[in-house]
Amino acid sequence: MEANELPNIAELNKEYFNNTSSTYDANPTNVLYAKKCAEAILREVKDLKGYEVMDFACGTGLISQDLFAHVKSILGVDSSQNMVNEYNKKVSQQGIDKEVMQAICLELKESDGDQLNGRKFDLIVCASAFHHIDDIDSTTRMLVSYLKQGGELVVLDLKKHPEVLHKLHEENKDHIIAHRGGFFPEELEKAFLTTGMLENVSSKIAFSLPKQIEKDEEHIFEWFLVKGKKI
Ligand SMILES: C[S@@+](CC[C@H](N)C(=O)[O-])C[C@H]1O[C@@H](n2cnc3c(N)ncnc32)[C@H](O)[C@@H]1O
């Protein structure tokens, strides 16, 4: 790599999550964050009955599994083939029809236009993944392009606390994080608003959890949710 060349975040993420897919669900923190995110989505978006949902950056399907009983169908999309395999393994073990829930390995990019043959969704969710993605504005516009008119986009991520930034992820140094420490909620609200295609944009704290960041130091981590409705 040339000195001035940026690492390809998307490729590095793919490699990282391909290598960690088989142990992802064994980490109680991953399961807990996903459970809290799914609960927040269900609190925020009432009556999902009949909804066709996209779970973007779906991972092993922890969010999809919790939303499944409330919706018509869920399509998981992730750039890591091994995460997608874990997702689909669970679906097939449960005997669920692929038409109702399945994941596909796809790198959705704004520059590639429609990659889903005209398929549109009532709700698109993305939990704990935006901080892995470098171009948030483009990703948000791309996701909105897959919403039906009146459909909702809901993104959940870690709220940035500058005072602990330097202490974060010490235990996971190999994580590929484009936005270290998450975001200020206003940053994602701005990305939503500048699409020009979302209204009723708002954010709120979804949940908070204490986490030890150093031997004798605990910090309260806050996850926030930002949502908007397609005009
Ligand atoms: C921390 S995991 C969260 C998984 C899931 N949303 C959950 O809450 O359990 C982040 C996920 O983002 C995916 N990811 C990272 N960059 C991506 C991209 N550009 N497009 C699609 N998925 C991506 C990774 O493969 C991984 O599955």
TrEMBL record:
InterPro entries: Methyltransf_12, SAM-dependent_MTases_sf. It comes from Gigaspora rosea. GO terms for molecular function: methyltransferase activity. Keywords: Methyltransferase, Transferase. CDD domains: AdoMet_MTases (cd02440). Residues 54-153 form the Methyltransferase type domain. Transmembrane segments: none annotated. This is S-adenosyl-L-methionine-dependent methyltransferase. PANTHER family: PUTATIVE (AFU_ORTHOLOGUE AFUA_2G14390)-RELATED, TRANS-ACONITATE 2-METHYLTRANSFERASE-RELATED. One of its GO terms (biological process) is methylation. The lineage of its organism: Eukaryota, Fungi, Fungi incertae sedis, Mucoromycota, Glomeromycotina.
